[in-house]
């Protein structure tokens, strides 16, 4: 299953990528995050592996995230037309997913975030979930992006909204 979602954020590209890749901020915008535990590498850098635990209702999901691409590494002084790539894979029981994030400067202090997502399922149950509920995955990805936008632009914390 593959899909793409996008939105514009009223912040410079460099700031957007810094906030997105900082694990200290993840609980503020990543709804359902229980734990993001570094296993190896420097967070946000290619090759970094982390244990991720998410919860949605009564369901708990655990997987290993690996940063597979971050280009360019240095974000300062980039030409306006330069596209920043930040990609990661998550492997969990019955599932593999990849998120390929692209950040483009669309104006002074404005960034377009395009997120290409791919999921592969193994096992009968996970394949059924993928076949019967593809819109749920897209909707959740867009919700995470909107939560990030609210956090980045206005300091809104999803934990406060849920309380």
Automatic annotation (TrEMBL):
SUPFAM superfamilies to which the protein is assigned, alphabetical: Bet v1-like
Pfam families documented for this protein: Polyketide_cyc2
Protein name: Polyketide cyclase / dehydrase and lipid transport
Organism from which the protein derives: Lentzea flaviverrucosa
